[in-house]
Amino acid sequence: MHYPKAKQTLMSLAVATACAALIAPAQAQESDQAGAAPAPSSSGDVTTVVVTGLRASLGSSMNLKRNADGIVDGIVAADIGKFPDTNLAESLQRISGVSIDRSIGEGSKVTVRGVGPDFNLVLLNGRQMPTSNLGDLNGRAFDFANLASEAISQIQVYKTGRAETPTGGIGATLNVMTARPLDRPGLLASIGAKAVHDTSHNNLPGDVKRGSSTTPEISGIYSNTFDDNRIGVALSASYQERNLGFNQAAVSNGWRGPFRGDENNWGTIPQPGTDGADRITNRPKPTDVYSVPQNLNYNMNGVQRQRTNGQLTLQWAPVKQLTTTLDYTYSENKIQTRRQDLSAWFNFGPSSSTWSNGPVAAPLVYTELIPAGNSDIAMGGADFATRTQNKSLGFNAAWKTDGLKLELDVHKSTAESKADSPFGSSNVLGTASFSRGDTTADFRQDFPVLSIKGADFAAAPQQVTGSVFQNGYMKGEVDQAQFRGSLKVLEASNLNFGLASTEVKNRSAFSTQQRDTWGGATKPSDYPASMFHQESLRQYFDQIEGSGNPALFNQFYTFNFADLRAQAAKASGLPDLYLPKNTFDTDQRTTEKSKSAYVQFGTDWDTAIPMHTNVGLRYETTDVVSTALVPAATTISWVSANEFPVAFGPATFTTLNGKYHHVLPSVDWDADIRSDMKLRASYGETIGRPRYDQIQGGTTLNTLARVFGGTGSQGNPQLKPVKSKNLDLSLEWYYGPQSFASLGLFHKDLENYAGQSKITATPFNLHTPVGGALWNEAVSQGACGNDLVCIRNYIFRNHPTAPGVTRGADDPSGNATGTIVGQPGDPVLPFEITTFSNQKKDKIKGAELNVQHMFGNSGFGISANYTWVDSGLKYDNYKIGEQFALVGLSNSANLVGIYEDKNWTIRAAYNWRDKFLSSTFDGSGPNPNYTEAYGQLDLSVGYAFSEKLSVQFEAINLTNEIQRVHGRAETMALFVTQSGPRYMLGARYKF
Question: Which residue ranges does the record assign to the TonB-dependent receptor plug domain (predicted)?
């Protein structure tokens, strides 16, 4: 179909050219064509396309792309209350260039064109949304798992810069739009119910399983207009329960290292000519980089989730020209988690090992030799809950005449996450049997296999060891006022303009109650044997290659967390240490106040090839105030072989400030080179604000140090945002009513990335026993070498009353227990402090190929896309130390097949994402995390008995895929996760 442009007179061309010269590069006009992609706006003045089926929905999404200024993709609901997927992130991954991160088996955050979740801005009806996530206390990423899909009418993904768009999205700005009653006059209502069966819930130990594997979902939406369509009311609500599980094999505290092949210190393998060197096969070469595992952990997790969403929208158009909208949106996501685990820690004593070839070498089999058979077999548990609430109250007034549109939009929105359990937002209660002998980790297959010799649970019963109870809190607030206008200039031009004021507040706080008695907090006799329940491990990982290895240590014990916690509190006589604190140790608060203004001029050109141009300019200034409550560290205590907890005193607030401003131009051009073919070019500059942990003031030390030092973090409020100069080209062929093919090329020139690096510092001048007088005396005797347990035994047995030394009873293995506190005159412990500065820049380039084809009137159709992304910001696995690399960069592809007729709607969707760097730090320090390539097949089948009643069956992760994350080498497993398919059967009735 050809979309004719308005005819330009010579006078209008002259005026348009003059206006463009005055404005400088600017942005896209709002199109008046049917199905055009609107600017992010809550006014509802966009032409709404009412669709009644999946094919029509795909056609509407295609027209949104076709008629937009710049590069825009989107998803349009097939009908009111009928979004294509039950999860918005799962829908977004069908769009080229969009990849998702998964959490508890469903999509949560999005990466667009290789730019990670923190640098993609999410709007709700054109309004900037706050974020809160206890899993990432200091991030900006929006978690789509908090929003149900039933009330969503469409999602627009703006991939190019727009002057009228709020800043913050480098990869994309995503506008989530809800239904407005005056956009769809008359009565529209439906109610739906589903039964959800999550098979992952069935594969869990009894002590972590919650409820039934089949849970309910119910949703409803009501929209109606009155008084000759001048008054509108819309109400939507949904409630969803889900019980699920996931099981994970992990080197969850990362890998010790990396080392060079010729190093010989604590944690490295013996060098040639030293004791134990003969037990190493295919030793890493002197120039090779290698790491050794710190621990191997198996954890089984039972999760319950309850998600409640609701929205009320009231509209009133007292006169034809004025429409007012008042809306309130609420969402609550409650998650309860129980976990049991089995693990073994390596203390880097005598070992034997077999290695892969370098230059990055990884252990294929690593064995620690423990002839005494008295190390710990750790079996921990957790029981915690969190709640996230989102609230948004907004008002919009839109005035529209033939040549002028004015709009005022204000809203106050909050997102708050906190603990929803008396045991805190995260916790762990450690237990152990001190009967572990030689311990082996086999990494030759996907599943890392732990083998243990000499385990004797009868002779060394389980007992409670250390514990950690944490309370986390995060709250984001956005107060925003936006004024927008559009003036028609002559026959075919528009001048758009706007002002905005935005205040964003972020508060993240946490406290930790940690008891570092990992050598044993109480006695085994304090716990009846009936409190521990024997389990076998292998069954929980039966989908992962290697779990059938007969060498797997297959026996472990679980427990009821609440019962064992109460017993430990009673046996220890220290009940307060087995509950979270009521106050926060660290409280960090940041306020960003931004003011912005924009102008943009768009015009159609009646030339031989019809063209449209849009130029825009946005100015924005931001003030940053960061206040942090930071606890002051007081002492370092040596409590077990490699456990050096930091003690803290009273905390105080400190305040730091920052400021920046930007001028952001944008230019869009498109030409109808044929009636069915469009060529586009766009240039725009965008910014992505730093994460909150990057700009929060105060030095925060982690609570647990090691023999070689401690760790901490420190923010920098003067950081500038990342700035991106974006160039896009696109060729689009719309060869059928619902069929098209397109090729897009993009290039992003990024600067001011905050480099995450570590500096060595000595905050608070904390003295450590390591290298002190007592330590040196023990080493000088010649019997201990670097054996930490031996050194502790010497000090306790020869200097039990020395300053800072508090001796306890010997443990079941005959080793002394107690604490050794650093004294004046002892060395000061070094800390590696993570900090940030604007120092990194590079480029991202890529291509997007899209095809959507409907096979005539057969009912069959196919949609496919592939995205290729590349950047110089890659991680060098051979390099030791701090590195900056682009997280989330990956190729991706989608293949969707559909069939639709009067009664049936069938869709099979396969999504694939290539391997990508998911983090530059693991649990031990600066090391890469690579999420391996992952593909998932989903299926939905719907049948309509009539226009009013329909049923639907859905299957998620139909082929039961696993997810795997590795380190510098593929055999360096970090996380291997098994979950399971999820099935849903539902019905919907339209009134």
Answer: 66-169
Over residues 29-57, the pLDDT tens digits come to 333 333 333 444 444 343 443 335 778 78
Which of 150, 182, 214 finishes a domain?
182
**Listed residue (332, 405, 350) closest to 145, CA to CA:** 332
Cβ within 8 Å of residue 697, ≥6 positions away: 588, 626, 627, 628, 654, 655, 656, 714, 715, 717
Over the stretch 289-306, which tens digit does the pLDDT of each residue have? 999 999 999 999 999 999
Other Cβ atoms less than 10 A from the Cβ of 744: the count is 23
Dist CA 141 CA 626 (whole Å) = 19
pTM of this structure:
0.84
Residue 461 lies in a domain: no
* CA atoms of 877 and 359, how far apart (whole Å): 9
Task: Say if CB 665 and CB 601 are below 8 A apart.
Answer: no
Residue showing tokens 């592809």:
893
**Using CA atoms, how far apart are residues 298 and 682, in angstroms rounded to an integer?**
50
Contact 194, 241 (CB under 8 A): no
Q: Phi/psi class of residue 168: alpha, beta or left (left: φ > 0; alpha: ψ in -120 to 50)?
A: left
HEC profile of 467-525: EEEEEEEEEEEEEEEEEEEEEEECCCEEEEEEEEEEEEEEEEEEEEEEECCCCCCCCHH
Whole domain around residue 778: which residue ranges? 773-821
Phi, psi (deg, nearest 5) at residue 91: -70, -40
Which CATH number fits the domain that encloses residue 89? Answer: 2.170.130.10
**Calpha distance 593→480 (Å, rounded):** 10
Rounded Cα–Cα distance for residues 975 and 524 (Å) = 32
End-to-end CA, the chain: 35
